[in-house]
Amino acid sequence: MRRISLFFTILVISQAARAANPPQQDHKLKEGDFVAVCGDSITEQKLYCRFIEEYLLMCRPKPNLRTMQLGWNGETSWGFLSKMPNEAMRFNPSVVTICFGMNDGGYAQVVPNYDRYRHSLRGIVQDFKKDGVRFIVLGSPGAVDSQTFWGGPEVAAKYNPILANERDIAREVAAEEGVTFAEVHDLMMNVMRRAKAKYGKAYALAGTEDGVHPDENGHLVMAYAFLKALGCDGDIGTITYEPGANRAQASDGHRILSCANGTIEVESSRYPYCFYGDPSSPRSPKGILEFLPFNQELNRFNLVVKGATGQKVKVTWGDVSKEFAGADAERGINLAAEFMDNPFSAQFQKVEEAVKAQQNFETPLVKRLMHELAEFEAFLPEEKGAMEALKTAGMKKAHELFDKAAGEVTPVRHRITVEVLPAGAPTAAVVK
Amino acid sequence: MKRLIVLAVAALVCLRAGAQLQNGDFVAVCGDSITEQKQYSVFIEDYLLMCRPKADLRVMQFGWGGETSWGFLGKMPTQALKFDMTVATTCYGMNDGGYSPMTPDKARHYKDSMTAVVKAFKKKGVRFIVVGSPGVVDSKTFVRRDMPDAAAMYNKTLAEERDIAKAIAEQEGCAFADVYDVMMDAMTKAKEKYGASYQVAGGDGIHPGANGHLCMAYAFLKGLGVDGNIGTITVDLAANKAEGSDGQKVLGMKDGAVEVESSRYPFCFTGDPKSPNATTGIIEFLPFNQDLNRYTLVVKGAGTGKVKVTWGDASKEFAAADAEKGINLAAEFLENPFSGPFAAVDKVVREQQNYETPLIKTLMAGMGDMRRMVPGEQEAFGRIEAAAIKRGRELQDASAAAVKPVTHTIKVEAVK
Question: Domain of A174?
Fold first, then answer.
């Protein structure tokens, strides 16, 4: 009896010690990582997960990163937990991001089962750890739109606090399990408030259609939250120009091909993140940038002009010219923020098309080949081998589509022309 | 030209002439979510397997939630028509009407699609087609926000679809199953007895419980032309002799107790009559037993008094004159020696039909997408599809094999 009691005492102490010192995971991306973006229909929209993949491929915080989306409409944390062994885990990701809660909370139509949410999130994290996933980012759910939510503004006012409670649970589970937390909810609420103040109440951040599924603007906010949690430092590159010496230098990922008469020709294998569309439309991520430090924290492609303090600098990049105070140019101009339409835009879109094709394939791969076909394994045990072969073929095809997307990220050659002007020179309008 | 007309008339005559079940028929029960509930389709299969109007019948259900006639039409080539059915029943219209008043466009769409469905089955070589009307929505439980008379409005739409379906059946030389009128009639009468809250078309007013599904099965079985003669046991008390009709073998008779081995069962009913999820409560408003379920005991030589009949654990007395005309045991003894075996077969049938939903909706429907996803694996897809269809057939065979002869005793005594 004393032995048993000693055993339980040791067990309790060891469990308490584990809780106090949870196994720490890596909190950084590594070269060659395979990132699985897991979530519900918001993930299956293939927007924030596409933005993440585009960033990881083109802005390249680490080389050879692969991304895959595992979004499933209507999914809950407990639904995903049960599907993991036959689906997510089959792909052997080294990094995962998790975003559940929108359906789990019940849309203020039922009493939320917070215990089940907590238990399921913990189960997901633990199962991923057991499966050898090195770096886990546990995200909070986002927000519903205060105006366009399908239940109306009053229900939205009830549901966002429920999502906030889930956010707290996700944060607690992340802390207990020693994994990284991504704060999606607060960020979306904050940006939504400020964007509506500028564009009006009708400007939807969490979806024009139903207030749950965001358009591109809300998805950029989500991508920002996850990319920050993934530890991306935002340094895309720096081009340093010394007008006096007619000399230019570039950081890793950018190569100076020539520098003559203020024109610097560069070959870049790391792209700045590019934006498109009409800023006043939720379908464009552009309009949200002023409420989100995306360019400042994740998208710094800097031009530094040495010795320009006290003068004025005119920069021409692609078809656009802009003037800057010399002191600002000496500190560094973020070309990605200042020149939305730039020499990377066309190639960025080309890569985007390939990423779309890849992520569009991943939905039926998971939902049909990995899930629905598995339902038939019980009925047709003799065909298990054929079904496995189909799944393997599907996974191989997904990899080929990813390789195609990655293959589109070819180095971009571009010219930056810098003219140092006297401080009193007349200011020219932006030229296009 | 004259020859063509003769051939066309002959074809029509053939279709009409062949419009009855035959031994070995394979019946496809097609419809929307009401079919996918797998209740009336199970009742039909239970009946065809156990009451056995013809030998070696097979049934498969093709129900699909939210389906319309035009949706089914689009899916037929890759799903239903991949099977070799000889008989098909169709029941569309509930979703086709859009849960709103009928319009000329809707009526045309329904008519064109249903006609095309029938023609596609004929082209495939389906010998016998029963075009069913839609059922009804429940006068109490079908409600729509801001529409106080929603059920009356929508039942009018469904009635118009019934007329269209009937006209198509006549025009195409098919049988017609009037599901609408059977349900409406039974619903009206049943609510008078049990109260307005007794649902015949389900809690949502659309998807019936077992009671409404029995009405549907009745309409389709009538459409399939079954004659309702399950069997007759004739007992001559004076001669101490008994005989059984086809499917009812008399093993012996002693002191009025007749031992019978039956390979054809009467249809059995279950549940609390007051519950919509029972089949027992609706049969008094539906001539199911009279038209489809006649398992008759004829008693001769019992004199002019009464006869007591004991079957299983129950006993009942009848006027000898009535017993001489024939007592329908299936109607008089709802709990009887077949109840257990019937429930056991019903369970196997449900397992079979439960498999058919993912077979159609997951595998057959998804196969096109999956084949496009990995085009280099056509051989594996072909094998899996063939194995899945074969498995369906095996389950149907298992349902048929579950029907074992039942040995039972009917004791008949003259009451003095």
Answer: 19-229
Q: Is A183 strand, coil or helix?
A: coil
d(CA B43, CA B267) in angstroms, rounded, equals 9
Q: Percentage of chain B with pLDDT > 70? A: 95
> How far is CA A392 from its chain centroid?
27
Residue holding tokens 């080949």?
A: A369
pLDDT at B18 over 60: no
Is the domain of A201 the same as that of A312?
Answer: no
Phi/psi at B378 (5° precision) = -60, -35
A364/B370 Cβ within 8 A: yes
Q: What percent of chain A has pLDDT over 70?
A: 93
Q: Is residue A10 part of a domain?
A: no
Confidence check on the interface: ipTM exceeds 0.85, yes or no: no
* pLDDT tens-digit readout, B113-157: 999 999 999 999 999 999 999 999 999 999 987 788 999 999 999
Residue B14 scores a pLDDT above 50 = no
CATH code for the domain of A111? 3.40.50.1110
The span from the CA of B26 to the CA of A343, in Å, is 66
Q: Which of A41-45, A100-104, B5-9, B230-234 has the lowest mean pLDDT?
A: B5-9
Q: Which of B5, B36, B57, B24 is nearest to B359 (CA)?
A: B36
The answer to whether the CB atoms of A397 and B373 lie below 8 A apart is yes
* End position of a domain, from candidates A229, A249, A276: A229
Residue in the structure block whose two tokens are 């469904």: B158
**What is the distance in angstroms between the Cα of B374 and the nearest Cα belonging to chain A?**
6
When scoring B374, B379, B396 by the number of chain A Cβ atoms within 10 A, the one with the most, hence best to mutate, is B374
Residue type, A217: N
Residue of A278, A308, A283 whose CA lies nearest to A213: A283
Q: With DSSP H G I counted as helix, E B as strand and the rest as coil, what are the percentages for chain B, rounded to 5? A: 50, 20, 30
C-alpha dist (Å) from residue A208 to A102, A190, A277, B203, B381: 17, 18, 16, 34, 41
What is the per-residue pLDDT for B144? Answer: 87
pTM of the predicted model as reported, rounded to 2 decimal places: 0.79
